[in-house]
Design goal:
- This protein is an alpha/beta fold and 437 residues long.
- The chain has three domains: 122 residues, Nitrogenase molybdenum iron protein domain (Rossmann fold, 3-Layer(aba) Sandwich); 108 residues, Nitrogenase molybdenum iron protein domain (Rossmann fold); 141 residues, Nitrogenase molybdenum iron protein domain (Rossmann fold, 3-Layer(aba) Sandwich), CATH 3.40.50.1980.
- The protein is 45% helix and 16% strand.
- It has a six-stranded parallel β-sheet with strand order 1-12-11-10-13-14, sandwiched between helices. Strands 3-2-4-5 form a four-stranded parallel β-sheet, with helices on both faces.
- Strand 2, helix 2 and strand 3 form a beta-alpha-beta unit.
- It is globular.
- It holds the Pfam family Oxidored_nitro.
- Pathway: Porphyrin-containing compound metabolism; bacteriochlorophyll biosynthesis (light-independent).
- It catalyses: chlorophyllide a + oxidized 2[4Fe-4S]-[ferredoxin] + 2 ADP + 2 phosphate = protochlorophyllide a + reduced 2[4Fe-4S]-[ferredoxin] + 2 ATP + 2 H2O.
- Protochlorophyllide reductase is composed of three subunits; BchL, BchN and BchB. Forms a heterotetramer of two BchB and two BchN subunits.
Amino acid sequence: MNDQSPPPMPGCRDVPVLRERGQREVFCGLTGIIWLHRKMQDAFFLVVGSRTCAHLLQSAAGVMIFAEPRFGTAILEETDLAGMADAQDELDREVARLLARRPDIRQLFLVGSCPSEVIKLDLAKAAERMSAAHAPNVRVINYSGSGIETTFTQGEDACLAAMVPVLPETDARELVLVGALPDVVEQQAVGLLEAMGIGPIRVLPAPRKADDLGLGANTVFALTQPFLGDTHAALERRGARHIPAPFPFGEEGTTAWLQAIATEFDVAPDLFERVTAAPRARARKAVAQAAEGLDGKSVFFFPDSQLEVPLARFLTRECGMTAIEVGTPYLHRDLMGPDMDLMVQGPVFSEGQDVDMQLDRCRAARPDLTVCGLGLANPLEAEGLTTKWAIELVFTPVHFYEQAGDLAGLFSRPLRRRAVLKLDAAQPPAARAEARR
C-alpha cells in the first residue's frame, strides 16, 4: 500500500528575512529590573541616570511610599552632566552610603542608562573599583539598560550576561535553567525535570549570591526566554553547552523543550510519558477552551519583546491562527531555529523596524489581531484594529503546561472584547442602558 499523504512542509528556519533599519518604537531596557529584583533576593539595582529613569521605574513597579525597594536611581545632576563635578567620586559616595544603610545587599548592579552612556561615564571601571573596595561581602557588576539601542527585554539579557564571567568553575555535570521566571512557574519546570530523575538543577539568576552555580565543560543549559542571546554566548565562552529546543510556550513547545533535556540525560521514553501525560492533557484542554475564537483568525506581530517567533509558533500550531508578519527586534537563528522549524512557510519574518513602513503593511493587511507595544496600540485601536499589548506577555506567567491556557487567553480576550463592543454598539440606546444596569 502506497502512502499518498503529502510530504511535510518545510519549516521557516531558512526563509528570507526582511531586515529593516529605520525608526523604531522601543521600550526602555531598565524595565527588566522590575522582574529581576524580585528573583535575586540579596541584590540591589542602582540605575545611574536621570529623574526620568527614576520616574519610569517607580511607575512600572508601582512602588509604595513606605516600601524599601531593592532598586534605586543615582541621579545625574546638571553639574555631573556638564562635567563640573567628578561623577565617579559622587557615585562612590552614594554607593558607600547605600551599602552602609543596607547591609543585606550582597550583589550590587550598576545599571547604565541613556544619560550615563551619553556622557561616557565608565561604569565598568567603577564596578571593578567598588568590588575591590567592598569585597568579599558585596559583588559589584555593571550592565547597560539603556533604551537608546536596545529593546526592553535586553535588560535581563545584559544583566545575566554580565554575571556569567564571575561565576565559579565546576567540573560537575549539571543542568542550568537560564532566564528569570515567576517562582511558581520555575518550580513547575524543576518539578517535572526532577520527576524524570534529572539533576542537579541550577537556575540563573539564582535567588542569592550564596546559591551561585558553577560553570564548566560538563555544564549543559536550557534557555527559558528567547531574548537571551548575549547570555547564551557568554555561557558558551565559559565552556557550557546549549540544549537547543523550541521555547516552552503552550503544550507543544513545553513538551519539545522537556524532551530535548530528557534526551540529553537519557530519560526512558516510558518515564517521560508518565511524568508529562497528565499536565499535557490539562494543557491541551485549557488551550482548546481559551483559544475559542482564535481559529482561522490572522495575527500581525510588531517587534517588541523578542518573544514573537515562539508565540507565532504557538498561535499557528496550537490555536489555528494565521501569521501575516512576525516582526522581532533581533532574529537569533540558533535560538529561534527550533521554533521556526515547526512553522509552515507563509508569514513574513522581519528583523528590526522601520515603524512607518511596518504600519503601512499592517494597515494594508487588516489583521484580526495586532501584537504591538503600548505606543502603537491606541492609535491602531482608533483605526479599528484589535490589538494586544506585547509587554503584558512578559509580565504575565505564560510558560509551561499549567499556564498554556492563560497564554491562549491573552490573545483571545481582545477579540472577544471587540465582538462585545460591536454587539453593544448595534443595540438600541434603551437596550444598552438596560444591559448596563
